[in-house]
Task: structure prediction
Amino acid sequence: MAVDIESRRKRMVDRQVVARGIRDPVLLEAMRMVPREAFVPENLAEFAYDDSPLPIAEGQTISQPFIVATMIEAAEVGPGDKVLEVGAGSGYAAAVLSRIAGRVFGIERHRSLAEAAEKRLARLGYDNVTIIAGDGSGGLPDEAPFDAILVAARGAEVPEALKRQLKVGGRLVIPVGGEDVQDLCRITRISETRWETDDLGPVRFVPLIGTYGLAEDGSRAAKDHRPARDLPLPELVARHAEPLPEIDHPGFAEAFDRFADHRIVMLGEASHGTHEFYAARAAITRRFVERHGFTIIAVEADWPDAAAIDRYIGHGPARPGAPPSFQRFPTWMWRNTVVAQLADDLRAYNAKLAGPARRVGFYGLDIYNMSGSISAVLAYLDQTDPEAAKVARERYGCLTPWQAEPSVYGRVALSRGYAECEQAVVAQCRELLERALAERDDGDGLLDAAMNARLVASAERYYRIMYYGGAESWNLRDSHMAETLEYLLDAKGPDAKALVWAHNSHIGDARATDMGAARGEHNIGQLIREKFADEVALIGFGTHTGTVTCATDWDGHTETKRVLPSRRDSYERVCHDTGMPRFVLRPAADEALRRRLAEPLLERFIGVIYRPETERWSHYSEAVLPAQFDAYVWFDETRAVTPLAEEHLPGHVPDTYPFGL
Result:
């Protein structure tokens, strides 16, 4: 009997598959190996190799052998591929795929069918295939991206979620059309934003039931047959949002490869104390450094403190006499477990490089720590040019009494006049910058001194003008950050590519928020976008609720607070109402979506201070999301970032007080 079954199986392949033009030898051998009779009801086993579909439980069918072969060949499945089958049914197609591909996942909405298929595959020893019970219309984002996706059920159109779970170069095969006859379509992902479609001929399939498919009766789309203008905004967002797997999954960072051809990628955060924002940026950073040649990591931190991390990851010596880094409030922003792990990973990456040319560096953009910068400048000049060090000490003399509390200098400067001090520090800055740009073979030592001199010059102005209030102090600070980034790119050469970590309020284009429209403020995102245009990508982050590391007052104790659920009139509530736990959205990628999202809504901004009791007035501002960001990353529920130390004692007021973001 066994010999008869085997001969029938081979005859099926020859007469029904090869005779109709299927030529892939690996596929043909797989079909000769898999016992189709094991996947049909026992009373239909004698018909297992007939040229027709057969009924199975739950009113479903096992497809005709030729159709199975056609879909697999069209998907160009090869050894080592990761494949998703939607509508696994009996498990037969998944079994054939498992004899070809490296890893196969099947989704079946009927739990009884999924469990039966899993048992059959286990009995056959096919241990590289997993069958999951659930709604397959949205794919399997936690395992994406896939080399191939096969859908054994018809849809009125191709679900966007499935298209976006393909690798670039990957193939999606799906029947598309009405109830009677459908077109078997192959969708090939050409790039991060482009797909091509081929029509493979007429077929007949059962309906794809689910959130992104058809209704239970197969008569209409479950959610998106209506025109975009008639859809509730959360449904429209869900249609275009790309689901993301967990952050520690390789597919998470891979989803951002579409931005890797930009020279500058800015990664935001909706608070300074959320684990997911740090962890997501770290995952993207690792991938962009390792795969896409990014060598500059520029962060919303002071230059001297960031330089300590830069020396660590670059295997450089610590600066003698330098105070411990990141001791000022808020310490958790950079002294946390995610940043510590990233520093170790970057150090290991740099250790593998043959030379310093592609070494990744970690740099601070902000106007922090004037005293630390003065010390760094003097230490460099003491070592390289003692005479210049004497001149620098004279120039910085008017600032020396105020180094510990530079905000006091700002108050005194207004009343007494310190114009000569400004001229002196600017002269020092200019001289060092000119040397740094002229002597690039000096290494990073001169660049470090020059950038510290810039910080001193900017900080001197900042401390004076912040007492006037208004937008000028904010604008000076963000102008300094933008100029620092430009100097870094210039110093590292025309091929340098940078990742920027900063708050949404800094990297989202200020012209699309109350900052620019009502308060006359600009930010680094706007300034860099204006200069570099399409070379920059601005990526914001948001959340609905969870916990956050923060303080109640400036220079206060570190706390963990519960983040209130987002307001109903906010972009955050729109994202929450999609029901998706994680996704990335390009709000201007589709014109209908862009128009709907361009109606201003509130957006939440939590800095290092969080006061839930006044949240509407202290943490929300009106924004236009499609103009603000090129992409928006969503985590529905988040948790507080973990500081490296258990307790954080409040220190003295930071140089940049009273900024809160």
Q: What stands out?
A: The chain has three domains: 2-225, 230-365+497-644, 367-485. The chain has a mean pLDDT of 81.
